[in-house]
Description:
Shape of chain B: flat
Low-confidence stretches of chain A: none
Radius of gyration of chain A: 20 Å
Largest sheet of chain A: none
Mean pLDDT of chain B: 84
Mean pLDDT of chain A: 87
Strand content of chain A: under 5%
Largest interface: A-B, 26 and 21 residues
Low-confidence stretches of chain B: 307-314
Distance between the termini of chain A: 29 Å
Number of strands of chain A: 0
Strand order of the largest sheet of chain B: 1-2
Number of helices of chain A: 12
Number of helices of chain B: 12
Distance between the termini of chain B: 78 Å
Largest sheet of chain B: 2 strands, antiparallel
Helix content of chain A: over 70%
Structural class of chain B: mainly alpha
Helix content of chain B: 55-70%
Oligomer: heterodimer
Amino acid sequence: MNARIAYIASNTFREAVRDRVLYNLIAFALLLTGAAIFVGQISIEIERLVVVNLGLTAVSLFGVVIAIFIGIGLVSKEIEKRTLYTVLSRPVRRWEFIVGKFFGLAGTLAVNTFFMAIGVFAALFYVARKFEAGDASILVALYFIILEFLIICSLALLFSSFSSPLLSAVFAFSLFVIGSFADDLRGFAGMTHGATRWIATGTAYLVPNFSTFNVISSVAHQQPVGSQLILQNTLYALFYTAMALSGAILIFERRNLK
Amino acid sequence: MKSRKRTTIVATSLLAVSMMGCILLLRHIDKTRTVPLVEDSLYITSPKIVKRASLGFDGLMACIYWTRAVQYFGHRHFLRSHSYNELAPLLTITTTLDPHMLPAYQFGASFLAPSPPNGAGQPDRAIQLMEYGIAENPNEWRLYYDLGFVYYTELKNYSKAAEVFDRGSRVPNAHPFLKVLAAQMAEHAEDFATARLLWTAAYEAGYSPEIRQNALEHLRAIKVDEDVTNLQIAVTHFTQSLGRLPTSLWEVAAEENLPGFPIDPDGNPYELSVDGQVLVAEPDNFPFIKRGLPPGYKPGPPKFHSHPNDVPVS
Lengths: 258, 314
């Protein structure tokens, strides 16, 4: 990573911290503590399941919300505050600005996820009183969640590069929901014929397939995640992120900022 | 006093008073309303729709639905209700969302199968649930054991129970007592000894205090049922020998050479009615007994004993 990208990334991270983004960790801690203590009182035999399911779901949803709501403002806010002109008047290329913003946001989410992961494991230890070998698969689920964040960050940046913050939020959130149904969309495509089939298949491959990253249920039951899936998901996330970032760079390079 | 400070004090006081007023008023309204605020209802009954709506977070949704099922059953059970209409759909949604959630099958079957008010009185739904659980988790021997239990206790279908125990005994790492149960069920299904064997196995295999507590209550009930049966035989023998009804169980114990005065597992002496029926003094202490109940007895709220780690009653 060149120095300019690193500098923009670290500033983006610092700005997110200054915007009190990490305050969500308090809500997360309260949520997990509450669940760990109270679920045992009102349910039967699922304390461990709840901590893992709720913990990982919260990590995922909190991260998605942060990625969308910060990602959509990364470019437009700089234009609105006119700070973008100061940055671009220096020897910084537009693509470097986009890539730097991406790494800054991804870094924020990685740090956020790291602290949440500590919370998940602490809550798990509180209810189970010990760690088992199967709990290691929770780390894989967390890794997949971070991969998911990379895709969402890049999508939020893509939309932010040409649209208003409100529309970007709508687009990014819609894609998150559609992406969760990507498998169904592919199944639907398989049942249709002619042009509809082509369109449905094209759409199914174009939208991000978030369901492939969701292994929360499996790891909650301490089922191992195959190394092949880890490799495939890693490559898929990298390709998709590269695709969305490339789109964002192409649009931003051509955008008239006057 | 500065104007800003005064505003702060007034606003804080107003906030506290208003909040207190809201709480008091709502408490008063709750007391005056006789109907429940929210009826038990399941707005979405299709497991597929719930799974889709969970956006992939079906594990968490399953935990929520399982908790709902537990709360629903617990509330109805406490009220000694005879209607558990939403229980089976709640369990179906739970297990569709997470087919590997074993407690939902094990406890779910024990909620569904027994007759009201101890359960929903839907053994067919319990069997359906367990068969689905076995199909999704074919290597879990405990599910076969619980399914066999439903056939044995609720449907009295001993051949089917023996068959299920036998199926379970072939699962890798199955507990050896499944083979014993299968054999015992085939030959001596209706004996107290078989019932005791089953519930002792349930007690020993139970990995949660709730399961062990339930097994313990059943073991206590078996002891009472067996005592009452034996005492009733002694009373009949006494009547036939002396040509009159005994005046008390003391008299029966002395005449029939019983080993001591008969008492229930709580230490209360059994009673004898004027028409020669042996009765349990405190039937509310034994929620699962079938014998020794006073005529017209209506069970009160379930009473469980607070010593789940006790040794089972033998």
